[in-house]
Amino acid sequence: MMLFDLSSLRLLPPSILLTKSCRFAAIVPVLTLWLVMAVSLATSFTALAKETFSLANIQAERRELEMASATDKVDVIQDIDQRIADSHNDQVRRASLYIVKANILQHHGLKAIEDNIAKALLLIDEQTQPELYLYAMVVKSYGMYIYQNQAEQAAIVLEKVQQHPALKNDLYVQVQGLSSLLEVYYKLKDFNKIAKPLFQLARTLTSKEIAPEYQGFFKELDAELAYHSGLIGDTNQAIAGYRKIITDSKPKGQIENIAVANCNIANMYFLPLAEKIQYAKASLAAARNLSCSDAMEKLVLLDEVQQGNLSNIARLSQFHSNQQMPSLNQRSAYYAGLAYLKLNDLAGAQSMANRMTDTENWERYDLLQKIYEKQGNYRDAFTASQRYHQLRAQKDADARALMLSSYQTRLEMAQEDTIAAEQAKQAEQLQAAEQKAEARLQLMLTVIAAGVGITVVLTLYLYRSRQLQRKLQQLSDTDPLTGLLNRRAFLRQAEHLKQLAERQQFPLSVALIDLDFFKQINDQYGHQAGDTVLCAFAKAANSTLRQTDLCGRFGGEEFILLTTQQDTAAFAASLQRLQQCFSELCLQDKQLGYAVSFSAGITTVFEQNAGINQQIEDAIRQADEHLYRAKASGRQQVCTEDLCLQLVSA
Fold first, then answer.
1. For residues 365 and 378, what is the distance between their CA atoms, to the nearest angstrom?
2. What 3-state DSSP class applies to 603?
3. Which residues contact 508 (CB under 8 A, 6 or more apart)?
4. N or C terminus of the chain with fewer C-beta within 10 Å?
5. What confidence tens digit (pLDDT) does each residue in 36-59 have?
6. pLDDT reported for residue 631
C-alpha cells in the first residue's frame, strides 16, 4: 500500500523562499510529516523482521526436516545450519533448529547432543516456550541414558515431561518422550512401569483423532513393540516388527532406519548366533557409520574367523570412535574376544575381557570361562561359569517378569475401559467397550500361549545349561590324560566316603601306587611312551577295581586308591589282579611291547573293630612310607605296616 506520494513534495524557487516567508512556513509541516512517516515505515520493517515463528510453524518445519533427514542426513544438517544463520533475529526458531539438529544427530555421539541442546537452552526457557523446552529435555535425556549411563536421572527428567501440562500441545514430543521413557525403564529393569507407557503409546498412535499431518509419520510404535517382543523372547514377532520398518523404509531410501532395524535384530538376546551374523551383515550393508556399526563389524569378523578367513583380523582390535554406547562397546569386545579365542590368541582374548568392565554382563563371564578353560585354569573357569549361568538365569527371569507385567497391565487397562463404558451408560459406547475387551482378551490368550511356549524354551535352556555345568564340573575333576580323578577331586570324594564309612561302620583302606622305573621309560622311549603307560594303568584300574573303589592320579607316575576291602590280604589280592592286567596291557601295546610293574603302600583309614580312625591326609602319609619301603625292598611289591608281598606280572 502506498503510504505517501513523493511527487507531491515540490521544491519552491529560492526567490519565493526569501521574499515570501509565509510560504516557507507552510512547507515546514509537510517536511515534518514526511520525516514522521519515514520513521514509522522503518519501525514497521524492524518489527516485521523480529516476528517469531508460531508453534505450528515450528512443528511443520520440524516434520519437514525429520522426514528429509531419513534419506539425506548430511544435506539436511547443512540446510539446518543455513536456516540457523538466516534466523538470527528469531530466537525461538533458532532454538527449535538446534534441538532438531541434536535429535537428528543423536546416533552420532554425546557431543552432538550436548552442544546443540546447550545452544538452544540459551535462547528459550520453560515459562515462555514450554513445548520447545520439553522437546529439548527429551533429546537431552537420550544422551544421559545412552552415552552417560545415567538412566535413573533420565527417568526423572522424562517423568516430569510426561506430567507437564504443555505436553498435550505437541504430539511429536509426546511420542518421543514416551518412547525414551520406555527405553529408560528397560535399562533400569523397572518392569512394573514399562507396560503402561507402551500401551499408552499404542493408544496415542492408533487414535482416530490423530492429526492428518502425523498419519504414518511415526515409526516408534512398530519399533517399541518389536523391541518389547524381543525382550520377552518372542523373536518371531520381534523380527516381523523390524522387517515391517525395513519394508517401509526401503522405498523412501531411509538407509539409517534399515541399518538400525537390522542392528536391533542382531542384538536380540534370544536369537541364535548364526542368525545374529546374518542381520549384522545386513546392517553394515545399509550403513557403517552408526553407533551400533562397530558391534556389527566385530560380529561379522567373528564369522569370518570361524570360516577361516583371516584377512581382516587386524580390525579386531580397532574400535570406532563414534561408538560411545557402553553396552555396545562391551558387545564389540565380546565378539572380538570370541574371535581371538578361535585364533588361540589368549592374550588378545584377555585384552577384550579387560575392556568389559560391567560386572553384571553375562557376555563378560562367558568370555572369561572360555579363556580360563583354554588356559587349563579349571577352578576359575568353574567360578566364571557359575556367574555366567547366574546372570543368564536372571536375564531369563527378567523376561518372564516383563511378560507377566505386560499381562497385568493389559488386564488393568481392559478393566478401566469396562468401567468407563459402564459410567457412560450409552449402549453404543458399552458395545464398543465390550468389543475392545473381547479383542484384548484374545490378545491376552495369545500372550499366555506365547508365555507357555517361552517357558518351555526356557526350561529346555536351563536343562541344557545344567548339562553343560555338569560337564564342566567333570572336566575340572578329571585328569585330562588318564580320565581318572585328579588329586583335588579324589581328596574331596575320599572325605565324603570316609564320612559314610563312619556312619555305616564299614572299613576303609588307602593304597599309594608308584610305577616302577617310570623315569627311565620316559628317558629311553620318550614321553609319548610314558603317556601310553599311564593310560594303560588307568585302563587296568577301570577294568579290575570295583565300582565302589575310588582311583585317581595323584601326580606324575603316582596313583591313589581308596577301597572298602575287609582286610589287607583282600586288598593286596586286588592289587595283584591290577598288576597282572596292567602288565598284559603294556605287553599287548604295539608301541611298548614290554611289561611294566608298580609298587604300592597300603594302610587302614577306618576300621571300627580295630579302633582305627585316621584323617585321609594322615593315612596317605603313612601309605607313602610303606610305598617307600616297597621300593627300597626291590620294587614290584605291596607293603603294609607288618609285611611286604611280591606282585607277579602276567
1. 14
2. strand
3. 497, 498, 501, 562, 563, 564, 604, 605, 606, 607
4. N
5. 555 555 444 444 444 567 888 888
6. 92
Q: Is the dihedral of CA 623, 628, 630, 635 positive or negative?
A: positive
Tell me how far apart the alpha carbons of residues 477 and 488 are, in angstroms, rounded to a whole number. Answer: 7
Contact present, 484 and 478 (Cβ < 8 Å): yes
Quote the pLDDT of residue 46: 44
Residue-level pLDDT at 627? 93
Q: How far is CA 290 from the centre of its chain?
A: 18
Round the average pLDDT of the chain to a whole number and report it: 82
Cell of 528: 609319548
- The position carrying cell 560337564 is 471
Average pLDDT over residues 325-341: 88
Q: Residue 319 is inside which H or E element, if any?
A: none
Measure the CA–CA gap between 148 and 365, rounded to whole angstroms: 23
Q: What is the mean pLDDT of residues 503-508?
A: 90
- Give 625-645 pLDDT, tens digit per residue: 999 999 998 999 999 888 898
Instruction: Give residues with Cβ within 8 angstroms of 576, minimum separation 6.
Output: 638, 645, 647, 648
**542-556 residue pLDDT tens:** 999 888 899 999 989
What radius of gyration, in Å, describes the C-alpha atoms of the chain? 41
Q: Count CB atoms within 10 A of the CB of residue 86.
A: 12
| Cell 566316603, residue located | 497
Q: Give the H or E element holding residue 560.
A: strand 558-563
Compute the distance between CA of residue 208 and CA of residue 511 in angstroms, rounded to an integer.
Answer: 86
Least confidently predicted of 79-83, 457-461, 475-479, 543-547: 457-461
**Model confidence at 155: pLDDT above 70:** yes
Q: For residue 474, what pLDDT is reported?
A: 67
Contact between residue 341 and residue 370 where contact means Cβ atoms under 8 Å apart: yes
Place of cell 479383542: 439
pLDDT at position 371, please? 94
Q: Does pLDDT of 9 surpass 50?
A: no
- Helix segments in 478-567, DSSP class H: 487-504, 518-525, 527-544
Other beta carbons less than 10 A from residue 583's beta carbon: 22
Fold of 487-646: Alpha-Beta Plaits (3.30.70)
Sign of the dihedral through C-alpha 256, 258, 262, 265: positive
Please list, in sequence order, all residues whose beta carbon lies within 8 angstroms of the beta carbon of residue 229, skipping any fewer than 6 positions away.
235, 237, 238, 241
Distance between the two ends of the chain, CA-based, in angstroms? 127
The residue written with cell numbers 490368550 in the block is: 445
What is the enclosing helix (H) or strand (E) of 509?
strand 508-515
Residue found under cell 605296616:
641
Tell me the residue ranges of DSSP E strands in 162-219: none
Cell of 242: 523390524
Task: Determine the Cα–Cα distance for residues 394 and 388; give it in Å rounded to an integer.
Answer: 10
Helix (H, G, I), strand (E, B) or coil at 20: coil
